[in-house]
Amino acid sequence: MSFPRYPRYKPSGVEWLREVPEHWSVIPLKRVLRLENGADHKPFEADDGFPVIGSGGQFAWATQFMFDGESVLLGRKGTIDRPLYVNGPFWTVDTMYWSRIHPCASARFCYYAALTIPFGMYSTNTALPSMTKSDLESHAQATPPLAEQRAIAAFLDRETAKIDALIAEQEKLIELLAEKRQAVISHAVTKGLNPAAPMKPSGIEWLGDVPEHWQVVQFRRCIISIEQGWSPECEADAAGIGQWGVLKVGCVNDEQFDPRENKGLPEGNTPPEALEVRAGDLLMSRGNTEELVGMAATASTSDSRLLLSDLLYRVHLNPELAVSSYFAVQLRSIGCRHQIRCLSTGTSASMKKVSQADIRNISVAVPPLNEQAAITQELNQLGNQARRARHEASTAVALLRERRSALISAAVTGQIDVRNAVPENAA
């Protein structure tokens, strides 16, 4: 869908804004809304009531509200680049500004315009990004007459709703692909590839029946040793060519080992070469979020100069009983993930840890070596198909989000004229 430009334009006087429609004004943000500070909600915190909103979104409830009506919320500290639109009673904390909309302005238009603010130009250069009220209030905003603001906002409400629905469909597809992949893995590592194989009770409720010739044992039976890594002070960026790097815990988050997830070892530090990761190593995360702790992958790199970190285990398996690539998959199965989550400890949901002893106590299903290799090969082929489908869906989501941002920017800066845009279902 393409839209016409306005008949006449004029220079905006603002470098990033360039030109605007001739009848539009370029005015500071404070001319369309008045920013107000948030406040501590703790005296009014409750299990239900009015939403309490910070720069990262709603996170609590309060018995009182700060304002009731339409408002555009702008981050003061932390997540500063995600403006929110609210219509109704709410409370904001001191990391979030809220606003009173002037009678000359449409709150929805102001919200869409706020999404185009170049926050990087204003944000303080600190570890925690911050925005000052004066910088925000002086931000130059292209502003049409009120009736036109409302028309643009109505257009964007319609069009972004369509795009959001398409994004939701693709995200649901990604979720379903992940669920299907998890189910396929779990079935393969507990039932095998031969549906006609005689079965026997495993003796474990969640595992059910397994092929008659398989063993069900504690993982310790397959393990020779477990090795933990090293975490020195590292550079912020990944290691360059020829440089030693220390792996980050995220290198095993996906099914495939990701060697790019590392931090460069500063010059002058002597690397303990015994901790260098080699192709075929079975790696597990020792600490991570509840959803990711204990994730496993088989290293697929050699001569990498990548070192095992303190939050990673290297599990040395008995080659007469276990194939590392098979157990990298089994440790991702529903049953193993459930065991690991139950065994992990830590008060913070963002950092759970699993001990070597707990890993050894996990119950696993162990087929013969030739079946382990066959199952791994089959799952790798299916995994490649799943990854392609997931990549296509993820690419579609990224393109839709780009389309959404570009449409909003073009409409609220007057680069397209949507005043006469008619809804598709209009008579």
Describe the structure.
This protein is 30% helix and 24% strand. Strands 4-10-8-9-6-7-5 form a seven-stranded mixed β-sheet, covered by helices on one side. The chain has eight helices and 24 strands. The relative contact order is 0.12. The chain has three domains: 25-143, DNA methylase specificity domains (Adenine-n6-DNA-methyltransferase TaqI, Chain A, domain 2, Alpha-Beta Complex); 145-196 and 370-427, Helix Hairpins (Orthogonal Bundle), CATH 1.10.287; 215-366, Adenine-n6-DNA-methyltransferase TaqI, Chain A, domain 2, CATH 3.90.220.20. The model has no long low-confidence stretch (mean pLDDT 92). A hairpin with a 7-residue loop joins β12 and β13. With 427 residues, it is of the alpha+beta class. The chain is elongated. The two termini are 19 Å apart.
Tags for this entry?
7-stranded mixed sheet; Helix Hairpins; 427 residues; 3 domains; alpha+beta; Adenine-n6-DNA-methyltransferase TaqI, Chain A, domain 2
- Overall pLDDT: 92
Main-sheet strand order equals 4-10-8-9-6-7-5
> What is the name of the CATH topology of the largest domain?
Adenine-n6-DNA-methyltransferase TaqI, Chain A, domain 2
* CATH fourth-tier homologous superfamily of the largest domain: DNA methylase specificity domains
Work out the count of structural domains. 3
Helix content: 25-40%
Tell me the fraction of residues in β-strands, as a range. 15-25%
Outline of this structure?
This protein is of the alpha+beta class and 427 residues long.
